[in-house]
Amino acid sequence: MRTARRISQAFFFALFIFLLIMTEYKGTDEIKYPVKIFFDFDPLVAISTFLAVYSVPKMMLWSLLVVGLTLAVGRFFCAWVCPMGTLNHLLSHNRRKAAEKIRRNSYDKRQGWKYIAVVFFIVAAALGLQIVGFLDPFSVLIRSFALAVNPAFNYLLRALFYPLLSLDWPWLTALIEPVFIFFRKFVLSFEQPYFYQGLFIGLIFVAIAVLNQLRRRFWCRYLCPLGALLGFFSRFSLLRLQVDENSCTSCMSCAKNCEGACEPQSSQTWIRSECMTCWNCVEACPYGSIKIRLALPRIADRSVDITKRQVLASVGSAVGALALFRIDGRKIVPSASVAEARESKRFNPALIRPPGAVEEREFLTRCIRCGECMKVCIKNAIHPTLMEAGLEGFWSPYLKMQLGYCEFNCTLCCQVCPTEAIQKLTTEQKHQTRIGLAFFDKNRCIPYILGRDCIVCEEVCPTPKKAIIFEETEVTDPAGNRVMVKQPIIVPQLCVGCGMCEYVCPLVDKPGVYVTSIGESRSKDNQLLLDVYGSGIT
Hints:
By secondary structure, the chain is mainly α. Among the domains are: 2-145 and 202-238, no CATH class; 334-430, no CATH class; 437-516, Alpha-Beta Plaits, CATH 3.30.70. Helix content is 43%, strand content 8%. The chain has helices spanning 2-22, 37-40, 43-53, 63-73, 76-80, 83-90, 98-104, 113-126, 137-166, 170-186, 198-211, 218-223, 225-234, 253-257, 280-284, 308-326, 338-344, 360-366, 372-376, 412-416, 427-431, 446-449, 456-460, 500-504; strands spanning 239-243, 290-294, 382-384, 397-399, 437-440, 468-476, 482-490, 513-516. The strands form four sheets. Strands 1-2 form a two-stranded antiparallel ribbon. Helix 8 (113-126) packs across helix 13 and helix 9 crosses helix 11 (198-211). The longest helix is centred in the first third of the chain and has 30 residues, at 137-166. The protein is elongated. The termini are far apart.
């Protein structure tokens, strides 16, 4: 069984890496593989999404299969399937002495932290506050790999191969060029990705990895809310650990090799909800004293130490978090009236959501900050917010136009969102979707401030009928000469806010043209011209 588990772990981890690599542009505007499949089997995301928006994407119904199997055979998902669990398992190996391993593998009351966390996230979701993505294992893993690990890996490969190939030594080129072509085709991103907050997210991932040296599978034992949810369901599983007290010599080999610190050395001490059914205890026992057999669950079985006071504190914290997050004035409040929106000035001009994003309130209750849309963006335009959307929108996706732009014919981000926070769009629908509106800064735009022609923005404008036109105007240049200059003008009805003009502007420090969120298709209020109080006057 241990060998079977290792094969299963290797398969699902390799599948995760493969799908992560496939979550990017591969020469066609179509994702051919089910890159979000792990989220479809995540019951924590399914439950929190249902509680937050009262609907679940159809593919997430597969998570019921995980729940059913957990009710039957226990918390198998953590040890046999979960790539986050596999990674933490690999990073937990060390050369400590047997006695120290046994001590560190004993049950710790702090393992109840993750159960408190799952109560907090579920109650928050029921109140409309979707923040489960901060600790959901798939969100953490994909966000870390997509925004930190993958960009660093891409950078190192390029730093290794490009200098060697530039030497132009025939024998060296013949040796490494096939390897480089392979990486270029199957592993390297289309362009070197850079992500706002990539370092911060990478450091968090490193911290999670290092904590495994304190306790085996630290993340799985203490922090993982999905593991806690599956642990709750596993209390009703039909598998039971049995220890033959007559043949057991208390050598503690079972405890030394236990993945979940579930105290497998005795049937009375065994904690069913913490057992990952890894079978290590069974195969480590030199006398065959431990068996895992079918048996009905018992109320008297030992459980994790969680008090009613802790549960109530978690519920209260969720209510308090809702209040604190919602009074943050740095986010959009779409439910406010036009007058309230104008008075509060809560429409953040920098908060430009990906095309296909639903209305902001629903977006925040659907988005789980997984980073899939950021990973797949062909022009590296989608980045995680810091405080642009307030505390509630922390790490949610937005477009940062000076680092990239929204490719006019690309719909990749619409295809990978696991919770439908970004709706699927056809190419034709994408062309009609506005994510913002461009404006010229006449204090910086070259034709306005220097009296010289600059037509870069108009040349790159991708709309069929150009959203940027020119108006020939006679101006005085800095030398005092009267000259005719083509001054660019935005046509609001044609601009889709793609940001290409801002990205290519020759003023590299602060562009002379910029995009704001106003005019976005998803909002009825965040518009350039508004119907005031329903009077029809604009």
